[in-house]
Amino acid sequence: MNFKLRPWRKDDLDSLVKHANNANIARNITDRFPHPYTLEAGEQFIELTTSPENLDRFRVIEVDGEFAGGIGIHPHDDIFRLNAEIAYWLTEPLWNKGIITKAIQEMIHYGFTHFGVTRIFGTVLGSNLGSQRVLEKAGFTLENKISDSIIKYEKVEDCLIYGIRNV
Ligand SMILES: CC(C)(COP(=O)(O)OP(=O)(O)OC[C@H]1O[C@@H](n2cnc3c(N)ncnc32)[C@H](O)[C@@H]1OP(=O)(O)O)[C@@H](O)C(=O)NCCC(=O)NCCS
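# coenzyme A complex -> structure
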């Protein structure tokens, strides 16, 4: 399987809307990723990811030359500038083949070298066991569990914070 990360392009719109329009993805992440995933949501996201100031934060995941998902790394600022947050999703037919574990490993190497941060973290819903496992496989450790602090689809959930350090 040929896997690579590349910058977003304007012509990713149709593939984005097609693969992102999945309730099994949307229920695991922020409400900013809607379901149904509309053309308007896709246009706004592509505008964000292709804007010059964001080009180094967002990547398309490509598998065998085809669009397969997205991954982003977001450095914080001010007194939190040593930290960056990572977020990701993959088209459902490709789940459980190790792809996101590889994508995260590539992005954290890039994040530590390009942004100079010393900590990269991910926040995960307590019910999202797949994402917790992925972060553990990629070398993250569970830093904290903030009980009953997320509300997703009217259900209150724990927030798990996983982190990795550049030592
Ligand atoms: C979470 C997600 C990114 C994982 O991507 P992926 O490429 O399938 O991940 P990998 O194949 O690298 O690893 C998945 C691991 O989770 C495990 N897993 C998957 N579902 C699981 C579940 N319900 N319970 C326990 N483990 C689970 C797999 O067995 C695998 O671990 P293993 O290699 O030890 O067997 C993908 O499922 C996805 O896009 N989900 C929806 C969006 C999302 O949750 N994004 C992250 C928000 S924090």
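# post-check
The mean pLDDT is 97.
The pocket of coenzyme A is lined by residues 25, 28-29, 88-90, 95-101, 122, 124, 128-131, 133-134 (CB under 6 Å).
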